[in-house]
Amino acid sequence: MIKIENLCKSYGKLPVLRNVSIDFALGRVISIIGPNGSGKTTLSKCLLGMVLPDSGDIKLSGKSILNKHAYRSQIGYMPQIGRYPENMKIRQVVSMIRDIRKDVKEIDEELIGLYGLEAMYDKSMGSLSGGTKQKVSAALAFMFNPQILILDEPTAGLDPISAEILKCKILKEKKKGKLILITSHIMSEVEEVADEVMCLMDGQLKFHETIATLKAQAKEERLSRAIAKIMNEED
Ligand SMILES: Nc1ncnc2c1ncn2[C@@H]1O[C@H](COP(=O)(O)OP(=O)(O)OP(=O)(O)O)[C@@H](O)[C@H]1O
């Protein structure tokens, strides 16, 4: 579904993505892990067309997406920190985004319901807690039934029940055959929702394996231990 070929991106003299090549298939949840500053968000932003790579290509169903925009309608994005106009009410943000996506007939309002956002519709975005803002971001990412979801540290800031709701939603959408990319630092969460893990280190792809393979390779039951072992061995 998505094919990334020899992707390179530098900010000034700082190389952030170094020759990254990887394929992602539909119906899979892939967790993007790696230390702070290893290039996870930059990779997601390249997929979203928010950052233009210096070289390399990204293909969606065989076609390059670089400098194109229409493909974006197939991707739902939940940013690490959602930035919204402070004065807008939740209701206005939701209806503004729905207006932009009038083409989509099948609206998924499940998260709006599960998070009880309608009861807060008249609150301004500027007055919301960080976690509530995250819930709005999550609801918007899933709203238009995209084939691909990119979730950047989606449960950071969510209380345990709300995080559980999101994890269930991720698994439900995976079952519908969607491709879901999640950046996360929480290994227990990765283990719960992901099928595969890709690890970036200093902008390079360190590994891309299924969770079962990583555990078998490291002879560890827990993913966090398996990953620590693999990283240490490779140092
Ligand atoms: N717009 C930008 N201008 C300059 N440098 C940037 C920019 N965006 C990111 N960087 C740098 O690129 C590197 C990779 O950042 P990125 O946000 O992709 O990392 P990350 O793996 O998502 O990190 P984290 O786990 O902390 O979220 C960092 O050194 C960061 O400071």
TrEMBL record:
Molecular function GO labels: ATP binding; ATP hydrolysis activity
Origin: domain of life: Bacteria
Record carries keyword Transport: yes
Listed Pfam families: ABC_tran
Keywords for the protein's UniProt record, in alphabetical order: ATP-binding, Nodulation, Nucleotide-binding, Transport
Domain ABC transporter: 2-227
Family assignment from sequence similarity: Belongs to the ABC transporter superfamily.
Protein name: Copper ABC transporter ATP-binding protein
Organism from which the protein derives: Rufibacter radiotolerans
